[in-house]
Design a protein that fits this description.
This protein folds into two domains: about 20-95 and about 180-270, P-loop containing nucleotide triphosphate hydrolases (Rossmann fold, 3-Layer(aba) Sandwich), CATH 3.40.50.300; about 105-180, no CATH class. Helix content is about 35%, strand content about 20%. It is built from nine helices and eleven strands. The radius of gyration is 19 Å and the shape is globular. Residues about 1-15 and about 265-270 have low confidence and may be disordered. It binds adenosine-5'-triphosphate and magnesium ion. Adenosine-5'-triphosphate binds near residues 53, 60, 61 and 270.
Length: about 270
Amino acid sequence: MSLRSAPGGVESDTKTTESVLRTEDLAVHFGGIKAVDGISIALEPGRIAGILGPNGSGKSTLLGAVTRLTKVTRGTMFFEGTEYSKVRPEKVARLGIGRTFQTVRLLDDLTVFENVQLGFDLISGSRMRRRTAADRDAERGAVETALRRAGLTDRGKLRPGQLSYGLQRRVEIARAVVMSPKLLILDEPTAGMNKFEREEISKLLLDLRGEGLTQLVVEHDVQMMVETCDHLFAMNSGKLIAEGTPQDVVRDSAVREAYLGRRDDDARDS
Ligand SMILES: Nc1ncnc2c1ncn2[C@@H]1O[C@H](COP(=O)(O)OP(=O)(O)OP(=O)(O)O)[C@@H](O)[C@H]1O
Ligand SMILES: [Mg+2]
């Protein structure tokens, strides 16, 4: 097997720790479009890994594949060493994978608190059974903690529509962290934000890392990625074209070429 981190962790200068997430030759084809075309990556625990790549290079499709929302054409994926390639999408949260989406997906008829609560219900299955007072206390505590971790203390009673766009995106992060995931996957968490808001999100991700949360982030803002990530992957046309330290990856000639003239700063609007 040509694994990046060999079973038993016998590689010389890499960690012996088990990868949180690992994919092997993952591919997602839509008819003739090879959106993801043979991707093998491994995420080390407690680190922030980022994926860079021009529009349409397959970043969101890769995130869809590892969260099981998108059907995989080929390949294998492991979470904490256990294969989960065929796990049902609704079971992925319970494995310990939380995610946010490229576009805001909040319910505006519900309060911020209730939106985050939905994330908790998803993993605890508490909608399915009668809840005791202790269940409700635990749930309220978890939601309040998630709101605090996402910097949304005191905003619980508001509706998402009453919040700035930057804060709405934080609600999504709160909804993902309320499940106490071991891995948080974020697709363009700062899309559409101004520089100040982007720095705030970067700080939030670093704070979450400080609490030990492993993260996989897709983002177009190269500077933010260099400042936030411990490890970078670069994709182009569904393939991995570089990986390594952020400094090395942004200096890589293939990465520069992939971005050259195709860098779409308007992608932040998507
Ligand atoms: N459901 C789908 N059906 C058909 N083609 C798809 C589907 N989803 C994505 N694609 C195609 O797969 C390719 C990769 O798309 P993807 O959304 O993964 O790119 P991306 O790197 O996330 O781009 P962006 O930076 O613009 O978000 C594109 O050519 C896209 O049109
Ligand atoms: Mg995308």
